[in-house]
Amino acid sequence: MTLRQTPLEDLGPANLTPQAMIAQPIEHFLSTLGISITEGDDDLGYFHGAALVLDEKISFALLHHRGDLPNTTIVYLVGQQLDGPDVTKSVNEIIRALGVEDALVTWRRDPPL
């Protein structure tokens, strides 16, 4: 599995949907993955995080908004990736690629019907 950082603007931040919450601060991923941080504002307020692409097929963002629980990171997928049964599979692949233990995933979006 290969991860590559991409500009957050390339994902279209307005089209991001939360998929999972990880009980680790965003800084953990920034240091372990060697990526840089992006700061900005969106509909949910001030955030910091990064956009990544997994195996050149799954685009996602790791974000922490000011109003989120402390020491958590939210995994967001791009809107067009939310159609079909592969959402859960994609999120699981992201979690694995990040090296996150299942016990640290404190919330997951319900899979689509």
Descriptive account of the structure:
With 113 residues, this protein is an alpha+beta fold. The protein has one domain (3-108): 2-Layer Sandwich (TATA-Binding Protein). It is built from 2 helices and 7 strands. The protein has helices spanning 26-33, 86-98; strands spanning 3-6, 16-22, 38-42, 45-54, 58-65, 73-78, 105-108. Strands 1, 2, 3, 4, 5, 6 and 7 form a 7-stranded antiparallel sheet that branches. Strand 5 (58-65) and strand 6 form a beta hairpin. It is globular. The model has no long low-confidence stretch (mean pLDDT 89).
Q: What's the gist of this structure?
A:
By secondary structure, this protein is an alpha+beta fold. The chain has two helices and seven strands, in the order ββαββββαβ.
CATH topology: TATA-Binding Protein
Overall average residue pLDDT: 89
Q: Write the element-wise H/E pattern from the N-terminal end onward.
A: EEHEEEEHE
Most strands sheet: 7 strands, antiparallel
Structural class: alpha+beta
The whole-angstrom Rg is: 13 Å
Described by the principal axes of the CA atoms, the overall outline is globular
Strand content: 35-45%
Distance between the termini: 28 Å
Number of strands: 7
Helices, by number, come to: 2
Domains (count): 1
CATH top level is: Alpha Beta
Unreliably modeled segments: none
- Helix share, percent: 10-25%
